[in-house]
Write a structure and sequence with these properties.
This protein is of the alpha+beta class. Helices cover 19% and strands 37% of the residues. It has two helices and seven strands; from the N terminus they run αβββαββββ. Strands 1, 2, 3, 4, 5, 6 and 7 form a seven-stranded mixed sheet that branches. Strand 4 and strand 5 form a beta hairpin.
Length: 134
């Protein structure tokens, strides 16, 4: 089974950091304060194939980028982003919509501050790879 971006969105919404209606995938509609956007991370990587071919592969990797669009307080945004980062970093052996998530591999050592949007709302980005059972 393939882990889709909607599945990752559901998992992040279930963590309770932002209201379920403020967690989006693919597009952050209207950029409401205290929102989280989940996107596919388009990074080139060689295919992961086990010795012996695809039938011997036990896992796949889903690369995602998460935008934390919080509020006009840099402190609140940093604290929320760090909380989400830590929860994702420490995730292992969870079930996401019938798919077993094995573990995560963070691509940076913390949330990356990307400044503010045109309304002065602070934002940060978290990038990670999610390893899950095939």
């Amino acid at each position: 089974m393939m882990l889709g971006i909607g599945d990752v969105r559901d998992y992040i919404a279930g963590l309770g950091i932002a209201d379920n209606n403020n967690v989006y995938c693919g597009k952050l509609d209207n950029k409401k304060d205290k929102s989280i956007g989940v996107y596919n991370l388009n990074r080139q990587r060689p295919p992961q194939t086990a010795v012996g071919g695809l039938n011997n592969s036990s896992y796949r990797i889903k690369s995602v980028s998460i935008l934390v669009h919080w509020n006009k307080s840099v402190r609140d945004t940093e604290e929320t982003s760090e909380q989400l980062y830590n929860m994702l970093r420490d995730t292992n052996n969870k079930i996401i919509n019938d798919t077993k998530l094995l573990f995560t591999k963070m691509q940076v050592d913390g949330p990356v501050d990307v400044g503010t949007d045109d309304k002065g709302i602070f934002e940060s980005v978290i990038e990670l790879d999610i390893y899950y059972e095939r």
